[in-house]
Amino acid sequence: MGGPPQLTEWRFWPKVCAFHLLVWLPVKKPLLILAAVVLAPVLVVSLAARAAGDWNPIGQTNEGDKVSISAVRALKNNQRTALVRVDYGKPAQLPQGGPFVEMRARVRFNCSTGAAAPTAEWFYTRDHSGRFVVSEKATHDDEFGRDPEGGFAELVSKNVCGQAK
Fold first, then answer.
1. Is the pTM of this model over 0.85?
2. Architecture of domain 56-162
C-alpha cells in the first residue's frame, strides 16, 4: 500500500467537497442567472419561428384563400388545439375590419360537435414597405371561419379532427 492516499480516502473528503460547493455556488449563481436571462428570449423566439415554419397547407376556400394549420395537439374529451392561418387571395373586408391579407388564430376544436372556438386571432395587413403588420387582435369570435370570414371552418375542423392522435 505504498504511495499517498487518494483524495476520496482522506477523512476530510466530505468537508472539502461541501466547502468547494459553497464557494463555487455564489460565484456561479450570477452567471447562471445572466445566461438564463439572455438565453430564454432566444429560445422562445426560435421555438416560435420553428412552429410558424411548420405550416401544412390543407386546401383552399371557394374564393381562393389558402388555408394552413400547424401545431395540432390532442386534448382530453375529444378536443384538439391548432394554429390556423388563412392567406387571403385578395385583401378581405371582414366583420373585424380590413382590408386584411392574412389571419392567424389559435383555435380549440371540439371534435364531437365540430365546433371551433378561437382563443386568439391576429389579422394582418401590409405596411408601405410590404411587411406584414398586425392591425387587429381578437379574443372572441362567434363567426370564426364562417362565410363572412371566408368559409373555411368546416375544412379546418375536418382536417384537425381527422388527424391521428
1. no
2. Beta Barrel (2.40)
